[in-house]
Amino acid sequence: MWTTKFTEEDLYVFNEAKELGFDGIEIDMGSPDKLPIEEIKQKMDETKLECTFSLGLEKNKA
What InterPro entries does the database record attribute to this sequence (predicted)? Predict the structure, then answer.
């Protein structure tokens, strides 16, 4: 799944990733203030999956 705004509606990917045999997932931090952090932590605990966050920075933006 690809999305620029990870929300509570996207938490299902943890279960799907686990079922597919993945060790973890990567979440884009496009809107870090809107990430459901507590829910992500809960899903990590439930599924025992690792989670990394990525952020794309625009050139010449300070």
Answer: Xyl_isomerase-like_sf (IPR036237)
